[in-house]
């Protein structure tokens, strides 16, 4: 069984609430813009290209900087980076709300993405420092994942509500009070941690990580917009080339941005794979649900958001309640595979919707899908953070979030492309009576285009056009649901295979499920970050990094079992496996 660790106190749990609140805001900002776009278009009159960048630049910059920012937090201090990011995020939110031109809006959204990249890895890695007991850490990560999962849905509801009464800038101004609260509470509640033995940040690796992730995310998203054309293909190939150079460089560096040897641990590799594929299915299919509720069933944006709240509740239960509870009793392989199969069952329920009814199936299917996948995202986040060395928790958290962004973009592109093919195939015949050829051509592109064109036609022709387009979109949704279910089933099989030797306790177990080697003479394992902050949980009575360095010099931190250290170590150690689950 895992070595017992100190229990968290009230300060840590209140600090967790602050971190979850920050995570929820970041997640909200990924969706809250969707309802504001028509108002922004009317006010700022952006071109189609500018509108695309307004929509995507936040996610692009966020994804490209997650790994470098996670590594930076390990070096300069995770709480310090969190506070810097909060200040920049709040200021950029105000500037975004006050934007007077498309160019200004694009620029401020890019700054928000860069600031968001400092916040996400910091929140996850700080949980690693605050909760040393494995069960408490799992529960804390579950609450963190629930906040992230619920944030996207809450963003839709909040955006719809605010835009009914206020200007579009208010969807960004709601970030400011949360960031101010974080700046006040962080020094009081959150510990500081940095790796005292970290070397200098390799700027070339930082640039390589950014230019590897950014063009791949852009290219994949463009596949959904333009199909298989040369620009997105070139973007993906360029990203893969830079990624190869990045990995080769990390293998040569003594102090890499990402220690690629982490992937030798099956638990770590399985967690990254689950993270990517689960987000592939979840985010890729959410694209269809929002359109179905509004354009097929005719719900207003705010009403559609309200009907998505059960899914947010299911995500919270799956992430914060079921995942921690089941992971204490059953092996990770069973819990992860079970959650993925529940998500697949939700997709199969969604595959039964019709073109004129199906609200109940959407609510039930979406709740099953999000609840099951939220369980898996909690487990994957916990495995990634727990199996990485504590001094590299920030970099590992950045890698986890980058996987989420990559999977989401891949899901939108691939499922979107499949759906577009089905939609156009269903409308491949000639234009119906009363519908002009140009209106029919526009309707064959998107359901939204069909609805817009129907407003220019006679009542009979409009009804015919909309009915055909809605039926085609329902077919599109059903095919995408079956494809998403297939992806989740495949991921469940991979999880069952890759995690088959991981027991109910990851950091302190060997492949057989027994205790990890505790060192000479049965010395108990010590969590190094626990030792670094235990004397001052809030980080207010001295620099924990300096204290950890002094303690290590005295020889009192040398009780960490070598089996859980992956990466370079200045102290010679006996030859042992890279990780107890490797």
Automatic annotation (TrEMBL):
<feature type="transmembrane region" description="Helical">
    <location>
        <begin position="479"/>
        <end position="499"/>
    </location>
</feature>
<feature type="transmembrane region" description="Helical">
    <location>
        <begin position="406"/>
        <end position="423"/>
    </location>
</feature>
<feature type="domain" description="Major facilitator superfamily (MFS) profile">
    <location>
        <begin position="15"/>
        <end position="503"/>
    </location>
</feature>
<keyword id="KW-0812">Transmembrane</keyword>
<feature type="transmembrane region" description="Helical">
    <location>
        <begin position="139"/>
        <end position="159"/>
    </location>
</feature>
<feature type="transmembrane region" description="Helical">
    <location>
        <begin position="333"/>
        <end position="353"/>
    </location>
</feature>
<feature type="transmembrane region" description="Helical">
    <location>
        <begin position="50"/>
        <end position="69"/>
    </location>
</feature>
<dbReference type="InterPro" id="IPR011701">
    <property type="entry name" value="MFS"/>
</dbReference>
<feature type="region of interest" description="Disordered">
    <location>
        <begin position="509"/>
        <end position="582"/>
    </location>
</feature>
<protein>
    <submittedName>
        <fullName>MFS transporter</fullName>
    </submittedName>
</protein>
<feature type="transmembrane region" description="Helical">
    <location>
        <begin position="359"/>
        <end position="385"/>
    </location>
</feature>
<dbReference type="Pfam" id="PF07690">
    <property type="entry name" value="MFS_1"/>
</dbReference>
<feature type="transmembrane region" description="Helical">
    <location>
        <begin position="230"/>
        <end position="248"/>
    </location>
</feature>
<feature type="transmembrane region" description="Helical">
    <location>
        <begin position="12"/>
        <end position="38"/>
    </location>
</feature>
<feature type="transmembrane region" description="Helical">
    <location>
        <begin position="81"/>
        <end position="100"/>
    </location>
</feature>
<dbReference type="InterPro" id="IPR020846">
    <property type="entry name" value="MFS_dom"/>
</dbReference>
<feature type="compositionally biased region" description="Low complexity">
    <location>
        <begin position="509"/>
        <end position="538"/>
    </location>
</feature>
<keyword id="KW-0472">Membrane</keyword>
<feature type="transmembrane region" description="Helical">
    <location>
        <begin position="106"/>
        <end position="127"/>
    </location>
</feature>
<feature type="transmembrane region" description="Helical">
    <location>
        <begin position="201"/>
        <end position="218"/>
    </location>
</feature>
<keyword id="KW-1133">Transmembrane helix</keyword>
<feature type="transmembrane region" description="Helical">
    <location>
        <begin position="305"/>
        <end position="326"/>
    </location>
</feature>
<keyword id="KW-1003">Cell membrane</keyword>
<feature type="transmembrane region" description="Helical">
    <location>
        <begin position="165"/>
        <end position="189"/>
    </location>
</feature>
<feature type="transmembrane region" description="Helical">
    <location>
        <begin position="268"/>
        <end position="293"/>
    </location>
</feature>
<dbReference type="InterPro" id="IPR036259">
    <property type="entry name" value="MFS_trans_sf"/>
</dbReference>
<keyword id="KW-0813">Transport</keyword>
């Amino acid at each position: 069984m895992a070595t017992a660790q100190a229990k968290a106190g009230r300060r840590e749990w209140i600090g967790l609430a602050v971190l979850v609140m920050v995570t929820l805001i970041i997640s909200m900002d990924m969706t809250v813009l969707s309802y504001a776009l028509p108002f922004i278009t009317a006010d700022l009159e952006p071109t189609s290209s500018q509108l695309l960048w307004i929509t995507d630049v936040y996610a692009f910059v966020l994804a490209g900087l997650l790994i470098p920012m996670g590594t930076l937090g390990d070096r300069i201090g995770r709480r310090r980076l969190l506070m810097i990011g909060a200040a920049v995020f709040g200021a950029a939110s105000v500037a975004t709300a006050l934007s007077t031109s498309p160019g200004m809006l694009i620029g401020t959204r890019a700054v928000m993405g860069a600031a968001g990249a400092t916040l996400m890895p910091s929140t996850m890695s700080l949980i690693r420092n605050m909760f040393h007991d494995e069960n408490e850490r799992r529960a804390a990560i579950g609450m963190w994942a629930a906040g992230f999962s619920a944030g996207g849905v809450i963003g839709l509801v909040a955006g719809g509500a605010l835009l009914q009464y206020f200007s579009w800038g208010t969807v960004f101004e709601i970030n400011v009070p949360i960031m101010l609260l974080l700046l006040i509470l962080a020094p009081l509640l959150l510990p500081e941690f940095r790796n005292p033995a970290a070397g200098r940040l390799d700027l070339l690796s930082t640039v390589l990580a950014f230019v590897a992730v950014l063009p791949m995310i852009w290219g994949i998203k463009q596949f959904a917009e333009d199909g298989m054309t040369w620009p997105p293909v070139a973007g993906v190939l360029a990203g893969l080339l830079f990624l190869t150079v990045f990995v080769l460089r990390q293998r040569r560096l003594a102090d890499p941005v990402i220690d690629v040897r982490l992937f030798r641990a099956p638990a770590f590799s399985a967690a990254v794979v689950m993270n990517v594929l689960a987000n592939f299915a979840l985010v890729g299919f959410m694209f269809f649900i929002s359109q179905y509720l509004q354009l097929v069933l005719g719900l207003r944006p705010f009403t559609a958001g309200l009907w998505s709240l059960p899914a947010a509740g299911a995500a919270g239960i799956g992430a914060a309640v079921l995942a921690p509870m089941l992971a204490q009793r059953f092996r990770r392989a069973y819990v992860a595979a079970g959650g993925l199969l529940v998500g697949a069952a939700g997709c199969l329920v969604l595959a039964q919707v019709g073109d004129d009814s199906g609200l109940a199936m959407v609510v039930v299917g979406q709740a099953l899908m999000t609840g099951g996948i939220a369980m898996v995202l909690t487990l994957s986040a916990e495995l990634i953070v727990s199996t990485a060395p504590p001094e590299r928790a920030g970099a590992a958290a950045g890698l986890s979030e980058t996987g989420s962004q990559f999977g989401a973009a891949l899901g939108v592109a691939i499922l979107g492309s499949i759906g577009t093919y089905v939609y156009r195939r269903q409308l491949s015949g000639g234009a119906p009576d009363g519908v002009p050829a140009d209106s029919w051509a526009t309707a064959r592109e998107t359901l939204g285009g069909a609805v817009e064109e129907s407003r220019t036609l006679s009542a009979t022709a409009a009804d015919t056009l909309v009915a055909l387009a809605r039926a085609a979109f329902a077919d599109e949704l059903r095919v995408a649901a079956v494809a998403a279910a297939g992806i989740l089933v495949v991921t469940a099989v991979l999880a069952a295979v890759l995690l088959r030797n991981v027991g109910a306790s990851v950091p302190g177990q060997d492949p057989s499920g027994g205790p990890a080697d505790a060192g000479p003479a049965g010395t108990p394992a010590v969590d190094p970050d626990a030792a670094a902050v235990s004397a001052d949980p809030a980080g207010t009575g001295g620099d924990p990094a300096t204290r950890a360095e002094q303690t290590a010099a005295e020889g009192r931190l040398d009780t960490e079992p070598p089996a859980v250290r992956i990466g370079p170590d200045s102290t010679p150690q006996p030859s042992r496996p890279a990780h107890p689950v490797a």
